[in-house]
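FW: tagging you since you asked about this chain on Friday. Here's the raw sequence from the shared folder, copied in full. Didn't touch anything.
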Amino acid sequence: MRPLIVDALASGRGKRQATRDVIGAGPRSLAGVLEGEGMKPQITVAETVLDGELDLGDFDFLLASGMTTDLQAIRRVTSTWKKTSGSPVLVGGPVASEPERSLTKTYADISVIGEGEQTLKELLELGLHRGRLPDPEVLKRVRGITYFDGVVHFNPLRPAMRRREYDSLVPSTATIVDYPLFRSSRVYVEALRGCSNYGRARIAADTKICEGCRRCDEGDLEGRYDCPQGISPGCGYCSVPSLFGPPKSRSADKIVQEVEELLSRGVKRVVLSAPGFLDYGRDLLVEPRPLTDPRHPEPNYQILDELLSKLSELSGFQDRKASFFIENMKGNLVTERAAEILGRHLEGTPVNVGFETGSMTHTAQLGRASTPEENLKAVLRLKREGLRPYVYFIHGLPGQNPENARETVETIDRCVASGASRIILYRFQPLPMSAFHGMPKAPPAEKDLIGKSIYRAAQRANRTLKENLVGQTVRVVIAERYRRDKRFHVAYPLHHGPVVLVEGFEGSEGSVVDVEIVGVVSDRMVRGRLCDGMF
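HL: got it, structure written out here
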């Protein structure tokens, strides 16, 4: 039995234009479930299917995964599949959090909502392992799915997995070689799933408005689960708590084993995936209660140090031919001790701190866990320990006005002064199962007077920060020819950073080389000159 998994992440209409160096953890986790059932899954990307580079007749059923913005790519993939096969199509990932839309717009048979591993196991037991759908009378008992049988049927959600159940999953490492450019890509390895911020936004969609009961801020860990007004938990723009529940951490040994296997297959860049990395191990401090408090207890320093120490000892990282790094963290958890542990193991690597807004008032309205001042303090601490803080902002958020936009611009400037290495700016888009679902999408920054001020402040800061790179030597991983000018190769810094265009390279994808940064191409790209030596 050969299932096909199509990773449509960031494919939009069918071809990934940006973040081409990202390989998420979800498809490999599903592949691990299939391998555990004795199957031989293959992973591919949407454009490979749409370009006709794969014989779909070789496969027995299709799993397609992507974000809500990838709906069109998934629809094109499933339409192509159905022209050659009558076998089942399942769609999952964030796109499935709008279940009716994900079915009716993609022509899939089943939409899997939230965590998909246990649902997939159940569907396999009910007949999917033979390449056919279970009967409708059977499907109606499967939690966590929506399915089409002439009409759309909505089943109850499946409860979020408990930690031990989650930790028993074995993601596939063999299928990493199915991805184009896997040697140069950022390969995500889950360290934990879920988020501890069970606060609520003070502004919400529809008629759901916070009445100030403070249960989500001051209640006990179990009591924070439920909101009398039915407002989704977490930051208003985020759906992670609704989809995945409170944090649950994987054991350090299993993470290390997965990373070691990936390195042996040629992976050069590993990202420890987590909505908030400093939540790692905090769930163990309150178990069996749910970790629904983003502030207490403090980080689990012992477990953090254990994980990072074991990873640091792997040979690929020791000889600097590969790298690992982390991404997101809540600024209020960046204590002096946490920053010291991160700096000891991750010196020179980027770490992300989400601000989203520079206004204290707006922060409270959004339901954020950390304040702008706490985040600025985190940037200072991380920079002092030798890390490279990246900071996030979002323009067009509900509640944005000229006053808090002005505060955000000032905070961007303060971030640079505090040691931020990059400003990352997103445009607000309402996500299903978030508190802000149903609110209007933000207009492009250049078409919005308020958003434009934030956009230009971020652009100005990033150009200054990239100019500071000129003259420095950076170790990069070669990826592919630059589509706009074949004289250059696209390369990615081993420890992450702006895209580097390298001229005159002769070699293969995945080669690790040193380059001198000689110029700035744009706010997202620099130009590098090859130094002697390949690693």
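FW: DSSP finds 18 helices and 22 strands in the chain.
HL: agreed, and The mean pLDDT is 93.
FW: great, closing this out.
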